[in-house]
Amino acid sequence: MKLPLLGRIGAVALVGTLALTLSACGSDNATGTPSSGTSDAPASTLSGTLNGGGSSAQEKAQQAWVAGFQTANPDVTVNYTTTDSGAGRKGFLDSSLDYAGSDSALNDEELASSTDRCFGGSGIDLPVYISPIAVAFNIDGVKELNLSADVVAKIFAGTITTWDDAAITALNPDASLSGPITVVHRSDDSGTSKNFQDYLSKTAPDVWTYEVSNTWPVAVGQGANGTSGVVQTIQAATGTIGYADASAVGDLGKVSLGVGSEFVAPTADAAAKTVDVSPRDDARAEGDIVIKVDRTTTESGAYPAILVSYLVVCNTYDSQDKVDLIKGYANYVASADGQSKAATAAGSAAISDTLRTDVLASIDAITTK
Predict the structure, then answer these.
(1) For the stretch 175-193, what's the b/e string if a residue is b when 16 or more beta carbons lie within 10 angstroms of its beta carbon?
(2) How far is the C-alpha of 342 from the C-alpha of 338, rounded, in Å?
(3) Are 299 and 274 in contact (CB under 8 A)?
(4) Nearest Cα to 242, choosing from 267, 270, 218?
(5) What is the Cα–Cα distance from 284 to 124, expressed in whole angstroms?
(6) What is the pLDDT at residue 43?
(7) What is the DSSP letter of 164?
(8) Rounded to an integer, what distance in angstroms lies between the CA atom of residue 326 and that of residue 50?
(9) What pLDDT does residue 278 have?
């Protein structure tokens, strides 16, 4: 039964804590990637524990990566605690985490502070998770809507407040729309928020005039903690709309965004196409790979409201054992098998072979102090 609107929506504050300590059996590979199953392959020599955490968008992918890596390396334990990107980067920088999952790359201040944490080296960003950010909604009898970037920005800025607003109905003449709109946004420090705001600011700059940041800048609607919190709040009542990693929105309605003369749905292929036409940040140091997402692309079939999520690691650690563990796990995450496992589990887009080559080169350069 559908619940009433905002007045009765409980504040959802779910911080998913994923302690991925999966039991695994059988391994035939010392390099950190699953074996082919041949009996003459060498057994894994890796052992120890890696602690990671952060991005809730990466949760399903991390589950798949940890399971695959531990199956190949049964003497290794990988723990990934799902919080948010900001907490992940903070934990990485204060050394409570060996690596972070983050939907935003390290900023200049974080890079500067990473020198001490990384034993004289630096933190580096490895783009390993590409996913569309779905604009998800809960309207009885409606599963698809076409919305331009301008209309989406006005909804989230609070200047379009009803579903039967002429700007919405003109784009969706066959949909039965009425009632107030309740916006749902992240209440925590979120890379998904930052990526979504970046999309709004680039594609609707006259409407979305707020500074892009990891926190939500508008006192409109209902805040919720983490990806799961946003999704559950949208599910809790009709008339709601929010944004979340597409892998997490389930059977909620999804918006197709206006791109050029088309309306494009949030699919993995459409997200991958956007990455393909986007440049890299050439101001980053060698080995630090950051994608400058082209939000204003008019490429046919591209979906520009995406997040490129990173594995944040050091390029220098204090022991060879830690280097071996980080290299092993990161290599598996970026491998064709790891990317395939994530795509199956989370609906993400696999990184391209070209990007993989560069990511693996960055991993290979990780060393001891």
Answers:
(1) bebeeebbbbbbbbbbbbb
(2) 6
(3) yes
(4) 218
(5) 9
(6) 84
(7) T
(8) 8
(9) 97
Q: Which tokens is 60 given?
A: 């399903």
Torsion of CA 148, 270, 276, 358, to 10 degrees: 130
Q: How far is CA 60 from CA 54, 63, 238, in A?
A: 12, 5, 26
Cβ burial, residue 368 (10 Å; 0-12/13-18/19+)? middle
- Name which of 136, 137, 140, 105 is nearest 123 in CA terms: 105
Task: Decide: 127 and 312 in contact? Cβ < 8 Å.
Answer: no
The answer on pLDDT for 25 being more than 50 is no
CA distance readout (Å), 119 to 74, 87, 95, 220? 29, 21, 11, 43
CA angle 353, 354, 359 (to 5 degrees): 90
**Dist CA 221 CA 156 (whole Å):** 8
Question: Rounded to the nearest 10 degrees, how much is the dihedral formed by the CA atoms of 253, 258, 262, 265?
Answer: -30
**Cα 158 to Cα 344: distance, rounded to the nearest angstrom:** 36
- Rounded Cα distance between 286 and 284, Å, is 7
Mean predicted confidence (pLDDT) in 247-264: 96
Which amino acid, residue 22?
A: L
